[in-house]
Amino acid sequence: MERAAAISFSLSILTGLYAGEGVLPQGPVNGAVGRTVMFITNLSPPPQPFITISWSFNGENIINSTSDSTGPGYRERITLNRTTGSLELRNLTLADSGQYIVAIVKATTETIIQSTELVVYEPVSNASITGPAEHLFANESSANLTCEGAGHITLRQWMKDGQPLPPGDNLFFSEDNRTVSISPVMRHDAGEYKCYLANPASFANASHIVIVNYGPDSMTILSPDTAEVETFTLLYCSVVSVPPARFTWLFNGQQTSVHEAGYVITSISYNNSGDYRCVAMNDLTRRNVSGDHHLSVKDKSAIPLSPEAAAGIAVTVTLVVVTVGLGLYFGINHNRNKTIKPTENDSDVYETVRPTLPRPRVNLPPGPTNTDSASTMYNTSIN
Ligand SMILES: *[C@@H]1O[C@H](CO)[C@@H](O)[C@H](O)[C@H]1NC(C)=O
Ligand SMILES: *[C@@H]1O[C@H](CO)[C@@H](O)[C@H](O)[C@H]1NC(C)=O
Ligand SMILES: *[C@@H]1O[C@H](CO)[C@@H](O)[C@H](O)[C@H]1NC(C)=O
Ligand SMILES: *[C@@H]1O[C@H](CO)[C@@H](O)[C@H](O)[C@H]1NC(C)=O
Ligand SMILES: *[C@@H]1O[C@H](CO)[C@@H](O)[C@H](O)[C@H]1NC(C)=O
Ligand SMILES: *[C@@H]1O[C@H](CO)[C@@H](O)[C@H](O)[C@H]1NC(C)=O
Ligand SMILES: *[C@@H]1O[C@H](CO)[C@@H](O)[C@H](O)[C@H]1NC(C)=O
Ligand SMILES: *[C@@H]1O[C@H](CO)[C@@H](O)[C@H](O)[C@H]1NC(C)=O
Ligand SMILES: *[C@@H]1O[C@H](CO)[C@@H](O)[C@H](O)[C@H]1NC(C)=O
Ligand SMILES: *[C@@H]1O[C@H](CO)[C@@H](O)[C@H](O)[C@H]1NC(C)=O
Predict the structure, then answer these.
(1) DSSP state of 271
(2) CA of 175 to the centre of ligand 7 (A)
(3) Is-above-0.85 flag for pTM?
(4) Is the beta carbon of 269 within 6 A of some atom in ligand 9?
(5) Domain 2-121 is in which class?
(6) Which atom of ligand 1 is nearest to the CA of 54?
(7) Domain 125-210 has CATH 2.50.20.20
(8) Is the pLDDT of residue 110 over 70?
(9) Residue 57: partners with Cβ closer than 8 Å, 6 or more residues away
(10) How confident is the model at residue 307 (pLDDT cuts 50, 70, 90)?
(11) Which residue's CA is minimally distant from atom 8 of ligand 6?
(12) What CATH superfamily classification does 214-298 receive?
């Protein structure tokens, strides 16, 4: 205890700090070339003005309020607050880095002397990310993203889709974080990459979108197996593909003119019974997938619907909508909560083709399969 007290006593003598401990904030103070810093004292305006306030830099006078002298090169660059002793220094240069001392003589003749350190950095600017110019394909391509900037950069960090980017099995950083290498790129590597460049006084950032092409795969054809004649019927081809797939429908082996995900029959005839094939094509991956579905058209129900039966159908439809709504909700959450490493089968992209449908009696496709796209589609088809 005694020793600590002795040390702190001699420190007070060395720094000449007789009162007002910690008048300046703990240094260093950081500044950027061309910008402004403020050395702020924590002194409250005294009842009587200070007798003298003087600031010096590496032993050279900056300003002395008694003699009203300003050091060379400071006249246009400083503002002294005479009630608090705070000093503003503008248009910083690298040469302003160093030790600043303030000496204040209060009306009571009590003297406060304190020092702090200023470090001036070249500001960080012109951040930019360079990524691969060619198309990227899931499981095949490799990509390097490189972040460059101007100025004195002391920190480089990467973010993806607003989250810090961790290294992974297929992703690593160069030692200085300048480059992110991804090999091979996977579906979940698609997204918005940001690099953040900083020093203690300034920062800059840049962003870059990475698109990973894949598919089509995970095809599901959503359709009833049987439809009542003269009803509205929809066959919907759901597939996962980036870029979105192009579609072709075949009926009993013959090309049709339908080139959308949804094959819409506004009023179905007996001759619409048969084998439907959906072909999905991705022009970039140059892959095709197809799926088949058999649809039978049957007679109208013999008994016309009683109001009770109609109500029953309404309830069923409502239930389906609710179920589908929940599925969609969980599907969305599932995607939103997706953690760092989803499996490659997780679908990030859904077909966006959504037919606008009239609302006559609808042949509901069979119960939802557990793909997210299926849920999305159901919702669309019923609403
Ligand atoms: C400020 O100027 C006065 C008058 O010239 C002088 O007495 C005083 O020592 C100076 N203070 C400092 C810290 O240089
Ligand atoms: C000096 O600083 C005090 C406290 O921050 C402020 O209220 C006052 O306006 C300043 N005076 C001048 C001349 O800038
Ligand atoms: C800042 O300093 C530079 C170089 O000394 C000078 O050219 C410029 O005019 C100054 N700007 C201001 C606002 O004082
Ligand atoms: C930043 O980029 C601009 C425009 O490309 C250029 O004029 C400027 O010199 C660059 N600044 C630095 C510090 O490299
Ligand atoms: C890509 O790799 C993942 C994980 O290794 C695998 O599950 C997936 O089937 C692969 N996809 C293709 C198109 O090769
Ligand atoms: C990425 O950078 C590494 C290391 O510099 C290099 O070996 C590799 O060939 C680069 N890959 C691509 C796709 O440019
Ligand atoms: C590189 O990034 C990591 C993770 O964001 C960070 O902890 C580290 O400080 C960075 N290194 C450099 C040199 O910026
Ligand atoms: C850079 O960061 C700032 C502040 O966080 C943000 O407002 C801005 O949008 C970012 N710019 C880019 C290109 O990411
Ligand atoms: C199917 O039958 C409808 C009338 O029932 C007819 O208008 C249509 O041309 C037929 N289509 C084919 C391909 O035979
Ligand atoms: C994909 O389908 C298109 C159109 O039917 C066809 O021209 C192309 O050859 C097919 N490509 C492959 C790889 O099967």
Answers:
(1) G
(2) 9
(3) no
(4) yes
(5) mainly beta
(6) 13
(7) no
(8) yes
(9) 71, 96, 98, 99, 100, 101
(10) low
(11) 144
(12) Immunoglobulins (2.60.40.10)
